[in-house]
Specification:
The complex is a heterodimer of chains A (301) and B (183). Chain A is mainly beta and 301 residues long. Chain A is built from three helices and 14 strands. Chain A has a single domain, classed as monomeric porin ompg (Porin). In chain A, the strands form two sheets. Chain A has a twelve-stranded antiparallel beta barrel with strand order 2-3-4-5-7-8-9-10-11-12-13-14. In chain A, strands 1-6 form a two-stranded antiparallel ribbon. In chain A, strand 10 and strand 11 form a beta hairpin. The longest helix of chain A is centred in the first third of the chain and has 24 residues. Chain A is elongated. In chain A, 34% of the residues are buried. Chain B has one domain: Lipocalin, CATH 2.40.128. Chain B starts with a helix and ends with a strand. The chains are: A mainly beta (301), B alpha+beta (183). Chains A and B meet through helix 1 and helix 2 of A and helix 1, strand 3, strand 4, helix 2 and strand 5 of B.
């Protein structure tokens, strides 16, 4: 009899199990999507942390895609405080044109030329860690950006013995950042700059700075950006101040327009981090813009 | 003496009840492709991560796909914009279609069926009731589904900025193919 009881109980259980199963089939979608959520075999990489590869003056942690050419035309105008005669600085434009190219998903290179001190610059940006969730969980993105810049403006005193190496400067930057939400992204940028020649013997050739920057999206296609580089006091050059920039990114299809106000006139790492002469509190504010246009050269994605 | 036949009887009931359980099928391989054919640009992308369940007894079904699994765009930036600006895949990670087959046919037999599926199509968080025509081929416990339909972006609250009007169609063609096997 004991055996029968067990079997009876089993039948009863299987019958209830069956009705439960039938109840849930009334929402097949919820069963399906629950299964999909539990699926852990794919890694989803975070994209669009920033709209383009520059935050304002400096690099963002964003790379261009593999086989993508990004043509960047940037302008910084004169000092706004110069008033109506100079049309608030618009009469004095300084520009940089740049060409960035994605070698792989994680490595991009770029070259540029600025009118400011007739400088050529080049960089590599290597994405070492990529924020992701799913199979591989990574809370941050980390990139390394070494740059080199070559001033080609005539030496101040051509009569003395000038060295080619005096024209060169280097920077090494780590960018650590995270897309916190669809709208908010933040990044920290410790940077080391070395310039072969400084004006005064008392000045340091090596400059350390820490940058902080972020973006807050206002609409789907417009974001508000802030970028600040704090130069460590012991290494700061005479008469320079920290670079602070605020601006907007406006994205339209393949273009990104960046409009901003900054106290820096240079557009490569050495000039805007180490050699910013303007001060916000004195009204030394420069209006500027970057235009980015991407061209896909490589195959489909 | 009594014990044996009773056990037999219950075992029989147990097994027979299992045999009449609803025939659930699930997608073993499925793909979904969409294309936007606009004057200046053809955008095409597809995902092979289509998932689905089909109850042949009740003729009910549910299909779902992760938006960020679509690939094949003209550029990486386009894929980024698709996820970030248009489909907002962080907010609305999936598109789905669930409902019931209208026709009164016995889908447990092998054969070729032209059917209409009526249900809720959810894209970009907006649900629309749709009737979608499908071809079904049932052969040896494998159900093959094929369907072509269109989706109006405006129906799902997906807005196109004026500057890309010439590059994106307002009506998107969708093609679905899936093989389902016994779950």
């Amino acid at each position: 009899m004991k055996g029968i009881k067990i079997i009876l109980l089993f039948c009863l259980l299987s019958a209830t199990a069956k009705t439960v199963a039938q109840d849930t089939t009334s929402s097949l979608l919820s069963i399906l999507e629950k299964e999909m959520e539990q699926q852990k075999d794919v890694t989803i990489y975070t994209t669009a942390t920033f709209k383009t590869t520059r935050l304002i003056n400096g690099h963002s942690l964003e790379n261009v895609g593999k086989g993508v050419l990004d043509v960047k035309i940037s302008h910084r105008f004169g000092n706004i405080s110069e008033g109506g005669y100079e049309l608030f600085g618009l009469d004095k434009a300084s520009m940089r044109m740049g060409f960035d190219y994605g070698l792989t998903k994680n490595i991009m290179i770029g070259v540029g030329r600025s009118t400011f001190q007739k400088t050529y610059d080049g960089f590599i940006k290597i994405k070492i860690l990529h924020q992701s969730r799913g199979k591989k969980n990574m809370p941050i993105t980390l990139s390394y950006v070494p740059t080199i810049a070559l001033k080609t403006i005539h030496f101040e005193d051509p009569k003395v013995n000038n060295h080619f190496s005096s024209r060169l400067s280097y920077s090494h930057q780590i960018i650590v950042g995270r897309k916190f939400s669809d709208k908010t992204s933040l990044q920290l940028m410790p940077v080391f700059i070395h310039q072969n020649l400084v004006t005064l013997a008392a000045e340091s050739n090596d400059i350390f700075a820490i940058g902080i920057g972020g973006r807050q999206k206002i609409t789907k296609r417009i974001s508000f950006n802030v970028e600040y580089y704090y130069v460590l006091p012991g290494t700061k050059l005479n008469g320079t101040s920290n670079s602070l920039s605020v601006g907007f990114d406006i994205e339209t299809g393949g273009h990104v327009f960046q409009l901003h106000f900054t106290n820096s006139q240079g557009m490569n790492e050495r000039t805007f981090i180490a050699d910013t002469k303007g001060r916000w509190d004195k009204g030394d504010i420069y209006f500027g813009f970057n235009i980015s246009r991407v061209f896909s050269i490589g195959k489909k994605h | 003496m009594f014990k044996r036949p009773i056990i037999l009887l219950f075992t029989l009931i147990l097994f027979s009840s299992n045999a009449s359980a609803p025939a659930l099928y699930s997608v073993s391989s499925g793909s979904i492709t969409f294309s936007s054919d606009a004057p200046l640009e053809l955008v095409r992308a597809s995902s092979n991560q289509l998932k689905g369940i089909f109850d042949a007894e009740k003729k009910q079904f549910a299909f779902s796909v992760n938006i960020n699994s679509f690939k094949g765009f003209n550029s990486q930036l386009q894929q980024e914009h698709f996820n970030e600006n248009y489909l907002e895949s962080n907010k609305f990670p999936r598109a789905s279609f669930e409902g019931k087959i209208i026709e009164d046919v016995d889908l447990k037999k092998n054969g070729y069926y032209n059917i209409r599926a009526k249900g809720n199509l959810t894209v970009h968080g907006v649900t629309q009731e749709r009737i979608i025509k499908c071809e079904l081929i049932i052969k040896n416990n494998i159900v093959s589904v094929k369907s072509n339909f269109t989706v109006l972006l405006a129906d799902h609250n997906i807005t196109i900025p004026k500057v890309v009007h010439e590059k994106l169609a307002s009506e998107i063609k969708v093609e679905v193919k899936a093989d389902l096997i016994d779950k």
